[in-house]
Amino acid sequence: MSRIFITGSADGLGQMAANLLIKDGHRVLLHARNPLRGEEAMAAAPGAETVVIGDLSSIAETIKVAEQVNKLGHFDAVIHNAAVGYQEGKRIETIDGLPHVFAINSLSPYILTSLINKPRRLVYLSSGLHRDGDPSLQDLEWNDRRWNGFAAYADSKLHNVILAFYAARQWPDVYSNALEPGWVATKMGGPSAPDSLEEAPKTQVWLAAGNDAGALVSGKYFYHKKLRTVHPATSDPEVQYRFIATCERLSGVKFQG
To answer: Are the CB atoms for 80 and 122 separated by under 8 Å?
Structure first.
């Protein structure tokens, strides 16, 4: 039996993964952005241990989420599931002056990875759109570029794989991997998404708690439990260091080790 923390588990794939893990006998900690969503999360995942509260668009609240998790003891795995979809129109700015998509999808996983006591396994949800991301990592704050919601989302999913592979390289005692669940009919994916919703949460559950040889790897990228090609820049140490340095500068949080 494993103990697993899942970000963004009030609904969607995070909630689905939580219920699969609970059904298999694992202990699951949920996360929601506010108390009301926390109540909804607990009601939708009977058997979950409890829920931690914090808005991941805020650096201060993300830090508090990490503090709450650490106070609850050791976790065997963390699934970094929380994300928002791409936003057209104008750039939405957070309380910290950052693009909303970057703050939640890119920066919050970095902060939580850096501050939560190191688990045995790390799982990051990315997307096939990460291959359209910009590996130059220029102007991640979108201060100088004309806002493009699709590009900002693709960039954030590239960042998730970069972070997963960086953690895998820095921490050889941790299984750190990324995956794409497919384009599925969640609130983010929309009703016309073509991929299997039933299959979508299974790879993250497998990577977080599976004991077969396929799951006990690190620095890999999956789709439906199968290895899939990844943007080559994600394995470039120079790209990884640039991303980590930018996240450290923006958040004031230093990566462990």
So the answer is: yes
- Annotation marks residue 157 as catalytic: yes
Model pTM?
Answer: 0.95
The rounded percent of the chain whose pLDDT value lies above 70 is 93
Nearest to 6 by CA among 249, 208, 153: 208
Start-to-end CA span in the chain (Å): 28
Q: Is 175 noted as a catalytic residue in this protein?
A: no
List the Cα angle 100/102/108 in 5-degree steps: 100
Per the residue annotation, which of 86, 124, 153, 175 is the catalytic one?
153
Q: Write down the catalytic residue from 86, 110, 124, 157.
A: 157
Question: Tell me, what's the pLDDT at 185?
Answer: 41
Residue 133 pLDDT level (bands cut at 50, 70, 90): very high
- By three-state DSSP, how is residue 224 classified? coil
- Distances in whole angstroms, Cα of residue 109 to Cα of each of 90, 163, 170, 213: 24, 8, 16, 26
Q: What is the CA radius of gyration of the chain?
A: 17
